[in-house]
Amino acid sequence: LPARYAGSEKSVWVEYIQLALENKPLNLGQGFPDYAPPEYITKALADVARSPDPLLQQYTRGFGHPRLIAVLAKLYSRLLGKEINPQTEILVTSGAYEALFSSITGHVDEGDEVIIIEPYFDCYQPMVKSAKGICRFIPLRLKKNSDVVSSGDWVLDRDELEGLFNSKTKMIILNTPHNPLGKVFTEAELKVIADLCIKWDVLCLSDEVYEWMVYKPNKHIRIATFPGMWERTITIGSAGKTFSVTGWKTGWAYGPANLINNLFMVHQNCVYTHCTPIQEAIAMGFELELTRLNSDECFFNSLPRELESKRDFMGKFLKEVGMKPTIPEGGYFMIADWSALASKVDMNSENDKYKDYRFTKWMIKNVGLQGIPPTAFYSEPHKHLAENCVRYCFIKKDENLKKAAEILSNWN
Ligand code: PMP
Ligand code: GLN
């Protein structure tokens, strides 16, 4: 294994998806809906599969299928209040994963520093390391310790953040709405980050795959819209999250042409082009939603409404069983502190180093409920911050959330 991959051998997803296959628990682990996406999107794919146009089954333009980049440019031009060039300022990728990879590999050079906010989506670190960059971590910290905790109570220390910026800093990775905390960064919080990026001439890689999953009264704000930020921001989205079709693995990155051009270089020599039929179907989905963006029926508005009641239901049953959840302002994950229940768990039955791994594995095997250990989202020196927590996903059928509540209350 090349040295640049040393330390990246373990993946929480590989391990926990295998555990789910072997133990068949009620799975609130990996983030995906266990119910059907909107019918129009799967119908669009079926129509594309049967289309009389044979070219829809062949390679398409490498940097993004023309129909998809056209509608993405229309949508984001409207959301950003700025004209986006579909040919030069957007790249369609194999999932947001590839957009992250192309952005990091296309910009980070040996010895460059990248600031990562903890907890973080776990692939950021190995991607930076594989580009021979250096990760500099800063944890979100819980500013109060009361019975009702919101993801908004997890904040960055301004001075600590400022202290990480220096002449070697190349990039900061932002994730809002946030996985796993569900934090939706406020305008004031984003301004602190934007001001530091401008002061130190640093790029911002903004992972916004949960952009439509925001609960009232919170609002998703795009850091690319701040003065002086468009020219230094690459923003990432995901059709898997946007249309509840995570298996379609289609993402995109948008930003100024000079920055996106570096992503083109990475993409054209590895993936080259992403699947045509899937891109065509997603384009059809966006074309429909663009005609009703401000209406209640728009899926981008109905999905968060539906998720909000699932969030509230989960928050309630986790509290009832004795856990201490952080109620998310966005996204579809909930972090909960389980330490009050530790005496009911055999913490010696697994030999993992961190308690959250032992807790989640014991729960999968003995109680039949799967969550994800959140220390996977921290650097080694900060893993202790999340050892008493678990991450649950709530984009699940109501009946399965009810089952999860029953499993926990029967165990209790
Ligand atoms: N970023 C974040 C924060 C995520 O949670 C995910 C989850 N899959 C991704 C990126 C990757 O998205 P995709 O499935 O489109 O590759
Ligand atoms: N983003 C999803 C999650 O956090 C899926 C991650 C993955 O499959 N690697 O659960």
UniProtKB/TrEMBL annotation:
GO terms for biological process: L-kynurenine catabolic process. This is Kynurenine--oxoglutarate transaminase 3-like. One of its GO terms (molecular function) is cysteine-S-conjugate beta-lyase activity. Its cofactor is pyridoxal 5'-phosphate. It catalyses: an S-substituted L-cysteine + H2O = a thiol + pyruvate + NH4(+). CDD domains: AAT_like. Residues 25-407 form the Aminotransferase class I/classII large domain. The gene is LOC112904493. It holds the Pfam family Aminotran_1_2. Signal peptide: none annotated. The keyword ATP-binding does not apply. Pathway: Amino-acid degradation; L-kynurenine degradation; kynurenate from L-kynurenine: step 1/2. One of its GO terms (cellular component) is mitochondrion. Gene3D superfamilies: Aspartate Aminotransferase, domain 1, Type I PLP-dependent aspartate aminotransferase-like (Major domain). The keyword Lyase applies. Homodimer. InterPro entries: Aminotransferase_I/II_large (IPR004839), Kynurenine-oxoglutarate_AT (IPR051326), PyrdxlP-dep_Trfase (IPR015424), PyrdxlP-dep_Trfase_major (IPR015421), PyrdxlP-dep_Trfase_small (IPR015422). Keywords: Acetylation, Aminotransferase, Lyase, Pyridoxal phosphate, Transferase. Belongs to the class-I pyridoxal-phosphate-dependent aminotransferase family.
